[in-house]
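hey can u run this one w/ adenosine monophosphate bound, need the structure tokens asap thx
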Amino acid sequence: MKHAIFPGSTIGVLGSGQLGRMLALAARPFSYHIHVFSPEANSPAGQVADREFVAAYDDLDAVREFAQSVNVVTYEFENVPLATAEACAAIVPLRPGTQVLRVAQNRLCEKNFFADNRLPTVPFASVHSLAELQASLADIGCPAVLKTAVSGYDGKGQIKINHPDEAVAAWQAVGEVDCILEGWVTFEREVSMVAARDVNGRIAHYNLIENSHHNHILDVSVAPANVPPQVLRQAEAMVQTVLTALDVVGALCVEFFLCSDGRLLLNEIAPRPHNSGHLTIEACVTSQFEQQMRTVCGLPVGDTSYLRPAAMANLLGDLWDVQRRDAEAQRKKDERNLRQSAKSADNISPDWTAVLNNPQLKLHLYGKKSAHPGRKMGHLTALADSVGEAEKIVRKARRRLETGD
Ligand code: AMP
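ok here u go:
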């Protein structure tokens, strides 16, 4: 621990969303200070940080001022511009470094990295023109999925192609930019492994987490996933390869497709804590955010044991919309409600009573100022004697929020 960055020091975070917020909350008990940098004021992370730098990512003077105010810099999203990360790295340690950032922010680099390291993944081809798309479709076959090489997340920038005739429309829909074409995999389940590697190369992981998606967005996660031991061993080996080959110091998540024949295929990596790992806050001895704090500060990885099986359900902005629709219906019915609903129509949050009355549930809200469909606004976590039981609890609670019962 000779070069450790000890409590009392300041961690800088590029990005200021919910992941930065939960890192800041995990670092507080250790007395670390948190400075965040992003273009947004009063951001989810900024609300709980010691200092919020508000500037564009390409304002490198502001970036340098931010880096000079901290002892180490990390990031909470992988699309932070490389020049921004490099400007920080010239002043203080940047963890994880730019090597993994470069790979994770470009789907083509990512898949080429998997192939170079003999890590099994989906069939893929690089696409830079319509002609290349048509040739690759003939090669890979349909269905396939066309994804922009950069800036895609939560299903954004991707389009499924069911027939070669759809190539022109798909190419136009993605904006005729550099893309990757992937073969469509019929997987049995989606699983992820959140792990962290410390400065001494020690790795700790949170077992496999099972994820279900809705509209390409993570919906519910349960852990530990019920998978055969050989699947867990395969995942551990692949995660170790990723972390060591890219010399990652920090937290990282690997997402996999688990096929019915037991094959595990790498989908993508994210060099940061991950939505599927939110349940570690309550379920594990050391949360993924404390683990990020520990590793970026040069401390050893913490114990990742599960205290109990757990489940997490995301709360998307759609829930706020349902409330607004209800409020508007009510407004029509009740003249007296008109003034009140009109005043707060943009900011009506669900009725949390049922959630707060249930001692099994933990509610996390990210402090986002406006809700819109698909936007991650918060999550619910429950621990129980089995993952099935925990999943039932979070799903039931969320349904009650949806229906308002
Ligand atoms: P991604 O942003 O690439 O992780 O894609 C979001 C979601 O789309 C994944 O979690 C899968 O549910 C689905 N998906 C993406 N790529 C593929 C693929 N090649 N085959 C089947 N499903 C996919």
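The chain has four domains: 10-94, 103-108+186-307, 123-183, 313-403. anyway lmk if its weird
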